[in-house]
Structure formats: structure tokens, C-alpha cells
Amino acid sequence: MINNFAGMISLECDICGEEADECFDDFYEAVEWKKDKTNGWRSNKDKYGNWQDICPNCVENKRYK
Questions:
Q1: Is residue 40 situated within a structural domain?
Q2: Which terminus, N or C, of the chain has the lesser number of Cβ atoms within 10 Å?
């Protein structure tokens, strides 16, 4: 999930809670960073149609559905 705490934007894995090493200036910067495949993050829809942000470790270990 993309969080906004006092103007600081962070990216957190919806599976394990790990945060990306980067901080972002706005929501769209976080989305673009996440879309860059070299960062290892993935967005996936769950069985209810909600988007999940998934860290590289959870992607590698297939901890998402």
C-alpha cells in the first residue's frame, strides 16, 4: 500500500509489511517507481478486486494470490 505520513510517501508490502527503501514526493511518483520492474515490486489484484502492492521477497516466494 502507498502511505502518506506528514507529507512523506512510502510504499509498504500488503503481504508482509516490508517497506521500500525509497521515499516519494507524491502518490504518482511511488506508483511509477513500483511499476519499474528493476525494483522488484508487483501490483496484483486480490480475489476481491482490491490492488495489493507486493515486495520482491513476497513475489519471489509467491506469497500472494
A1: yes
A2: C
What's the number of domains the chain is made of? 1
Position 65 in a domain: no
Partners of 10 in the beta sheet?
3
The answer to the question of residue 51 being in a domain is yes
First to last CA, the chain: 16
Per-residue pLDDT at 65: 67
Q: pTM score, two decimals?
A: 0.85
> Which residue, 57, 55, 53, 31, is CA-closest to 44?
53
Write out the three cell numbers for 41: 515490486
Query: Which residue range forms the structural domain that includes residue 38?
Result: 2-60
